[in-house]
Amino acid sequence: MSFINNSSGKIRCGPKALLAGVPIVLIGANVNNKPTYNVVGNFGVLRTSSPPMIYISTDKKHYTTQGIKENNSFSVNIPSADLVQVTDYCGTVSGHNVDKSTVFQPFYGNLSSAPMIRECPINFECQVIRHLSDVFPDGDIFFAEIVESFIGKQYLLDGRSCTVDIKTVNPIFLGSEENYWVLGNTIAKAFSVGKNYNN
Amino acid sequence: MSFINNSSGKIRCGPKALLAGVPIVLIGANVNNKPTYNVVGNFGVLRTSSPPMIYISTDKKHYTTQGIKENNSFSVNIPSADLVQVTDYCGTVSGHNVDKSTVFQPFYGNLSSAPMIRECPINFECQVIRHLSDVFPDGDIFFAEIVESFIGKQYLLDGRSCTVDIKTVNPIFLGSEENYWVLGNTIAKAFSVGKNYNN
Known about the structure:
Chain A is built from three helices and 14 strands.
């Protein structure tokens, strides 16, 4: 590590993904028609509008990766903080060695091959639309369409619209210092607070 | 919106990216050798290990997208909560109409074409390695290698290692109810708390 010769006065850390907090998700997939689950931090939304698309980046060797390739589908499940222990467990033991099929109560939507986790507030049922296996040698990247999304009624701001009450969902974020975090307070209204900024 | 005919008792929201909280980042790019900035929620890490890779998903029409294509490079900058107003501003006005080059103090690293934001605690200097323009009609997806990362010394847990002090960085998260949020407390040790779980 060294100071770079520029005027920013910042520390140069080399090519490093200094993470500022990533929401972690549980991936569900069937391997030989049996659910298995893994934790993925490398998850994100590619497109919010219809049809919404997400990506996950997984290790080629992981058991869930095998299930995703088997069925071209998987689930993304957003755990609440009260599930932190079982979530961490799913991320630290391999499906190659441990049967995780009974860790959660699975349910299925339109697809029969994407086991979703009833215990998680939010679930996405995902159909793979593109598999990128050549971006890096040890990993697979999957682009998937969200074919259906599910949420417990108690996690909605309004029982009828599908607007998420984030504080009630209470998702888990992973920091680069290897701690799990939860959200704190709201600080401003999005797409609004900037209107008062004078350039 | 209707209940699905399965035993989960969950509400079916249709194909919708029900977000549980996404850290927002500022993208920097040069258009005609002049910095411009935009806010992107569709950002994520593809690969943490070396070389780290990230993705961003942008609107084809956006001004910053033009700059990324021009130089095959861009910056990812993580704003602190105290930058929420100017960040929201950058996300709500278009570089096609407004000159945002003076909104921040830019600095450059190894590449001369990725303007980084001095005011942001963390900066990634990114080189595009793959451009996916055919995943959906109105958007571009860029895979990029982090060629260099920068952080202010005050945002490190230890002035010498490159471990981020997330609470000091105080990143901004966007909720689907269109509020900006900050992190609260740490709840558990990652890759550790699960060891006590009995399957």
